[in-house]
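User: Predict the complex with IPE.
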Amino acid sequence: MRDRVVVKWGGGLITEKSTMTTVRADILDRLAEQLETCLAHDLDVVLVHGAGSFGHLKAKQYRLAEGRINHQTFEGEMSQDEAVEEVRQDMLTLNSYVMEALTKRDISAVTLPPHQWASNTGPDFTGDLTVFRDAPSGIVLVTYGDVVKCDGEAEFGILSGDDLVVRLAVELPRVKRLVFAMGGVDGVLAAPPVPGEAQELLHTLRKDRAFEGSHATEMDVTGGIGLKVDRGFQVVERGIEVMLVSGEHEQRVADACLGRTVLGTSLLA
Ligand code: IPE
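Assistant: Here is the predicted structure with IPE placed in the model:
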């Protein structure tokens, strides 16, 4: 039986963050190539991707992460319900680019859009993982951050890919490691990056260090790395390796997935 790896391609890596619905096709192609390398080395892959400019901008404008907001008009033409539909459509579009990059390399991949099978948000979201678990070896199952149904007054919310990876890594059998591929950084930095100044990369990170003092808040502010680290520790605690690497360098994602020594941050229990 082949081992598995769960990989998250960050939205900031695969899209142009500041330009609405723009994909980084060259990056997608290089990531797909590295995924192919994993399969060729007898490693099965579960792929989760983020949203970047296909999700965050509109979700923020219509406050979709907060759920249903009554009696509120938004700057823009749409209702929240229409915005939910549009973000889901945009995510399907982004997902089609991801799938295209995979199929171009003859990788067999199947997408499971979260709004069709998951509900509620956070790492304890609801949703049956049987299809992921029973996927035949060599078939890449793909899912992504999405707008999902929520119980109670919220009615809907944003289920992040960073939450999806927790359950996928912990609940699927034979998962060896979880790899976060990110854009713009080599891993977790000791302090938020300052333009023009050298960045100190943390090669390893222990839980007690990550959330000490002001570091954690500062990391949160620098674009969601705090969430990845937090979710990553939930996975490390279950005996699964977790690595955060840049997705913009030749082979680093593949090397991390295959357990080779690579520049990045390794989380330690
Ligand atoms: C966010 O998913 C989903 C939407 C905004 C619809 P992620 O949290 O996984 O996305 P990135 O990686 O931060 O872009």
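The radius of gyration is 18 Å.
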